[in-house]
Amino acid sequence: MIEINRETKETQIKCKLNIDGAGISKINTGIGFFDHMLEALSKHSGCDIELTCKGDLHIDAHHSVEDCGIVLGQAFKKEIFPIENIERYGNATVVMDEASTACALDLSNRPFLVYNINIFGKVGEFDTELVEEFFNALITNSGITCHLINERGTNKHHILEATFKSFAVALRRALVENKKLGIPSTKGIL
């Protein structure tokens, strides 16, 4: 288990992450929908996540969501790399009723995000544009290459939940142990 703390003028975040966990979470960011998405990420990735964030929510949720992505990304990077004896690649398509979102990722130690989730507006009080901010911060700080593509759907809640869950399932699959691979790269290092 790794622990990362971050304190700025805008947020105070404490995070514990165990990628070899059981999908147990304890999340409190003060942003209900975001907490729900992070709980889904924990459950479906099999990673234990404890995360608390005290942020400047009197302004809006932007700083809290982005900074949580930074901290989780840093924690994932410390837990994953250097990698050895795992699959490295993972993909998943998750459906939530009418919505379907696909994620393909590579634990490459080369961050790159393709984000094609074209929804706008709010889910409750949550600005949907913040999901891209979260994943951009997470991916940039984790060293993961990730493609998130929404294939269909009309319900914003379903689309965003399928996005978090598809990332989680793809990550779980990439982290599967495979001792035959050793370091899963022809370069000999990632």
Topology, element by element:
Blueprint (H helix, E strand, L loop, with lengths): L1 E6 L3 E8 L6 E4 L3 H14 L2 E8 L6 H19 L8 E8 L2 E8 L5 E5 L5 E2 L2 E2 L1 H14 L2 E8 L3 H19 L16
Parallel strand pairs: 3-4, 7-10
Antiparallel strand pairs: 1-2, 2-4, 5-6, 6-10, 8-9
Helix pairs in contact: 1-4, 2-3
Explained architecture:
By secondary structure, the protein is of the alpha+beta class. It has one domain (2-174): Ribosomal Protein S5, domain 2 (2-Layer Sandwich), CATH 3.30.230. Helices cover 35% and strands 31% of the residues. The protein has helices spanning 32-45, 62-80, 129-142, 156-174; strands at residues 2-7, 11-18, 25-28, 48-55, 89-96, 99-106, 112-116, 122-123, 126-127, 145-152. The protein has a four-stranded mixed beta sheet, covered by helices on one side. A four-stranded mixed beta sheet has the order 5-6-10-7, with helices on one face. Strands 8-9 form a two-stranded antiparallel sheet. A hairpin with a 3-residue loop joins strand 1 (2-7) and strand 2. It is globular.
Percent strand: 25-35%
Question: Overall 3D geometry?
Answer: globular
Put simply, the count of helices is 4
Q: Secondary-structure element sequence?
A: EEEHEHEEEEEHEH
Distance between the termini: 21 Å
Give me the CATH superfamily.
Imidazole glycerol phosphate dehydratase, domain 1
Number of domains: 1
Q: Helical amount among residues, as a percent range? A: 25-40%
Largest beta-sheet characterization: 4 strands, mixed
| Unreliable runs | none
* CATH architectural arrangement: 2-Layer Sandwich
Q: What class, by secondary structure content?
A: alpha+beta
- CATH topology-level fold name: Ribosomal Protein S5, domain 2
> Assembly type of the shown chains?
single chain
Compute the CA-based radius of gyration: 16 Å
Largest sheet: spatial strand order: 1-2-4-3
CATH class designation: Alpha Beta
How many DSSP-defined strands?
10
Average of the residue pLDDT scores: 96
